[in-house]
Design goal:
Blueprint lengths: L8 H7 L1 H25 L5 H12 L11 E4 L4 H12 L8 H28 L11 H23 L15 H13 L5 H16 L6 H4 L3 H16 L7 E2 L5 E3 L12 H4 L12 H29 L8 H18 L4 E4 H9 L6 H16 L9 H15 L2 H10 L1 H16 L2 H18 L11 E5 L2 E8 L4 H8 L7 E12 L1 H16 L3 E5 L4 E3 L10 E3 L1
Parallel strand pairs: 6-7, 7-8
Antiparallel strand pairs: 1-4, 2-3, 5-6, 7-10, 9-10
């Protein structure tokens, strides 16, 4: 039975109702605290993280091209969203209160999210789902690691009840500033001791729960355990759930300040049109964030789809273009209603597979349970201590910037490690777009240094033959989109060759993509064979199978 591919549509719903409903419920338990935490960290009202997850489940399910991915807000976009809220907030009318500035920035950010969603729909319709192949993997991993570091740099202060201020009295937002301020914050760790106790205990649960020896308990998401412990503990300690601003010495500057209007109304009061397109008046800022939402969000969504396809026990091939359209539709609707931008989220999608999800209906059920929660427990979001949410987000940031990512890049090759680190440094010092651009430029420069002809960087000479493809010059990330497109025109039920004997170099990103293509051919009964690979050797004395290879 395991080899029989589950049906799609309403037939699939009837066939896999119980397995998809159970998986959807378990994913809901994981998505609930994370969606609230991601929204709060993004300077959105926390409840609107759930709005995005609900839209991603109840609506986007009917448009998706990937059967197992879960749609919702993602930690990888926190930095961009929070930056947008802050920059758009600068345009608020003079004399506005802090809450009014934050609300103004939120609503204008929604306008950028909606326009970015329209762009994503256009990307999908233009069949630009192969966009992810253009970005070199070391730069992508560097971008994600930098996002993880940025998340940690902010949340470690909130964990103990602090929000460091600049000399001008404004909350710090620059990653390098926040990183430099960590020793000061840690030196005053118990200045607000009750908040610190809740935060540190939550952090212990986040990192310690996976090591619990009882299998049944390990199935409960660590983030849910944090809520079960932190909420009653917060009430017992008498902590008020408000953001406190402190200066570099840890002195309390303003008690009770809330970065966004807290909502204590019912679901019908929350759901409505919240978007504003006044951001057009700040055209430079508006274009910047539309591009970042569309580009980074699409890239993360496409990479997740690719990763989840590899985990799918039925080896189904997702339609990345259709899925990009679905994510775009979700972002348009979520943006209008006030929600965060969404993607195909990798942690929740992986959990869906591990929980036995079979079809797109698992994503629908995850959204359905979020809707039920919002109908009957909307006040709950105000009960969750910010220090507990900070602990969950530090856990997310740690996974993105885990030391093993650095170790893995070193194993693949020193050139890949250089690109990885440069992307991180430029992202931390500037922003995501400049960071990934720096990684791409360094990768191109290294290819030229290693002998790749300049004319081959973006357009490798290809000769299409009856049983395969012959490539001349080099096969690198920047010209592989065309090569892959040609390979995909061949029937995957047959034996096809890729002849690289006339190439000087084949890079790491391409080698990994070819491994994935080989799997696709194998699943459908065919084979993709690489002719001439034995004439290449790994660069930088790397022993990793995915290392960049140069002609001997």
């Amino acid at each position: 039975m395991k080899n029989i591919v589950p049906k799609d549509g309403f037939e699939g719903l009837k066939q896999n109702f119980s397995s998809d409903a159970i998986s959807g419920f378990l994913v809901f338990l994981l998505a609930l605290p994370l969606s609230l935490g991601i929204a709060g960290a993004s300077d959105f009202p926390p409840i609107y993280g759930l709005v995005s997850a609900m839209v991603g489940g109840l609506i986007v399910t009917f448009f998706v091209g990937s059967p197992l991915t879960i749609k919702g807000p993602a930690a990888g976009l926190i930095v961009i969203v929070a930056g947008a809220v802050a920059e758009f907030g600068l345009g608020a009318p003079q004399g506005s209160t802090a809450e009014e500035i934050a609300r103004y920035g939120w609503q204008l950010t929604l306008g950028a999210v909606v326009v970015a969603g329209v762009l994503q729909v256009i990307f999908g319709l233009l069949k630009l789902g192969g966009l992810s192949d253009f970005f070199p993997l070391p730069a992508v991993h560097g971008m994600l690691a930098a996002i993880g570091i940025i998340i940690i740099s902010k949340q470690i202060h909130i964990l103990v009840g602090m929000n460091p201020l600049t000399p001008e009295g404004k909350a710090m937002v620059e990653p390098m500033e926040l990183l430099r301020e960590i020793p000061t914050t840690l030196s005053h760790i118990f200045l607000h001791e009750h908040v610190a106790i809740v935060g540190i205990l939550s952090l212990i649960i986040v990192f310690g729960w996976p090591y619990v020896p009882i299998k049944f308990l390990k199935k409960i998401p660590a983030s849910l355990v944090v809520l079960i412990v932190a909420i009653p503990l917060t009430k017992m300690l008498g902590i008020h759930n408000s953001m406190e601003l402190r200066n570099s010495a840890g002195m309390l500057i303003n008690k009770g300040y809330k970065p966004l209007l807290e909502f204590d109304k019912g679901l019908l009061d929350i759901i409505g049109i919240n978007v504003s397109f006044q951001g057009f008046s700040q055209i430079g800022v508006f274009i910047k964030y539309v591009v970042m939402f569309a580009l980074v969000g699409s890239l993360e969504a496409l990479l997740t789809v690719k990763a989840i396809d590899l985990l799918d026990p039925y080896k189904r091939k997702s339609n990345s273009n259709k899925d990009l359209v679905a994510v775009g539709i979700g972002n348009i609707i979520a943006g209008v209603l006030g929600g965060l931008p969404m993607i195909s989220e990798v942690a929740r999608s992986s959990a869906n597979i591990n929980n036995g999800g079979k079809t797109r209906w698992a994503n629908f059920f995850h959204g359905f349970f979020i809707l039920l929660f919002m109908l009957f427990a909307v006040y709950f979001s105000d009960l969750i201590p910010k220090s507990a949410l900070a602990a969950m987000l530090i856990g997310v940031g740690w996974k993105l910037a885990h030391p093993k990512e650095f170790g893995n890049m070193i194993k693949i090759g020193t050139d890949q490690f250089m690109i990885f680190v440069v992307t991180i440094i430029f992202t931390l010092a500037t922003d995501l777009l400049i960071g990934i651009a720096a990684g791409i430029l360094l990768k191109l420069f290294l290819h030229l240094v290693h002998g790749v002809p300049a004319k081959s960087l973006f357009n490798a000479k290809t000769i299409v033959k009856e049983s395969g493809l012959e490539v001349h010059g080099a096969v690198v990330f920047s010209n592989f989109v065309k090569v892959k497109k040609l390979l995909n025109k061949f029937p995957k039920t047959e034996e096809i060759f890729l002849d690289i004997r006339n190439c000087k170099l084949i890079d790491h990103s391409v080698i990994e993509s070819i491994h994935h293509l080989k799997d696709e051919f194998k699943v459908e009964g065919g084979a993709l064979k690489i002719i001439g690979i034995e004439e290449f050797k790994n660069m930088n004395n790397s022993k990793h199978e995915l290392a960049t290879k140069r002609k001997k």
